[in-house]
């Protein structure tokens, strides 16, 4: 195990939620040639991007708190069958979460970033993103846009893959833009990026891009159909978009509930997309549950 | 504020472990709960939420340590300190 990964895992073990780090060993066994180095590299990037944060406690505590809040929401969801937040709560969520430095900078973004590697199903999604989208057999893009850039990891991977591409990073949260800018600056990619703050479902539409990345946004917006319509117009002819949606996956800022992968896929197709590749995953330990939290990832193009 | 007894905490751990198909009846009060491998993270969260509700407390993130909450004895001591306002 590499040093940063080891230190991260040891820090988790100081908490009563030390078991949250168990998937790290499992993923190292499952992806012996890639996972450890991948996670180590991206923890290193996190550390370089935020040198003033205590290490590894900031990352570990952020990951724990992010998980803790989700587990709390899951208990509520099991009891009610509904997310705690509704579309009409979006403005409150904007104030309490996305505009709140104590949430976003302290634990939300770093917790989400670490979950891309430590949650096994999220690492599967990351692998799918690389294989099905970044390495799709298409002409290399000149422009890409990430809607809901969050921590910036997915734009980072795209910019490393497409070394001549320029990117627009869009997010409603200035804290997300700040975080992703720090990540991309540490990686030497920010020079090819422009940050754009605003609500992608409401702001004036930007020029179409060759590629759109829209991971983990559909469940956060009150009108996912509006988001998809804008995405269709925001994609150049022949372009590809990558999007994911959460299914039965409660989180305090999830407002649009998709109850099955079929529901989500049907919506995407109804709004004029053709699915090129798709993957639906859940945590391997939860496959036996009747309605486990899932992520559906899709590579799509506009339907003719 | 009512304080949960060690026996009540033990009973809750046994109940949560049973839901995972595990037997926690022999867990001793000074045995570390996470290390025992009887509860997963969701079950530990359930335990903490129950513990907060039963004792009328909200446990800050920084208190979620093994020292404070890792064993039944530690949990009992924690709520005693919380009752005295010295957690």
Describe this structure in words.
The complex is a heterodimer of chains A (304) and B (87). By secondary structure, chain A is α/β, with parallel strands linked by helices. Chain A has two domains: 3-118, no CATH class; 120-302, Vaccinia Virus protein VP39 (Rossmann fold, 3-Layer(aba) Sandwich), CATH 3.40.50. Chain A has helices at residues 3-13, 22-30, 35-49, 57-80, 90-98, 101-118, 120-134, 153-161, 174-186, 224-234, 261-270, and strands spanning 143-147, 166-171, 193-197, 209-214, 235-247, 273-282, 294-302. In chain A, strands 3-2-1-4-5-7-6 form a seven-stranded mixed beta sheet, with helices on both faces. In chain A, helix 4 (57-80) crosses helix 6 (101-118). The longest helix of chain A is centred in the N-terminal third of the chain and has 24 residues, at 57-80. Chain B has 87 residues and is mainly alpha-helical. Chain B has a single domain (6-84), classed as ACP-like (Non-ribosomal Peptide Synthetase Peptidyl Carrier Protein, Chain A, Orthogonal Bundle). Chain B has five helices and no strands. In chain B, helix 1 (6-19) packs antiparallel against helix 3 (41-55). At the A-B interface, helix 4 of A face helix 3 of B.
Radius of gyration of chain A: 18 Å
Number of domains of chain A: 2
CATH architecture of chain B: Orthogonal Bundle
Could you state the order of secondary-structure elements of chain B as H and E? HHHHH
Low-confidence segments of chain B, given as residue ranges, are none
Number of helices of chain B: 5
Tell me, rounded to a whole number, the average pLDDT of chain A. 96
Following the backbone from N to C, one meets helices and strands of chain A in this order, namely HHHHHHHEHEHEEHEHEE
Query: pLDDT under 50 segments of chain A (min length 5)?
Result: none
Report the β-strand fraction of chain B as a percent range: under 5%
The outline of chain B comes out as globular
Overall mean pLDDT of chain B = 89
State the helical fraction of chain B.
55-70%
Fourth-tier CATH superfamily name of the largest domain in chain A: Vaccinia Virus protein VP39
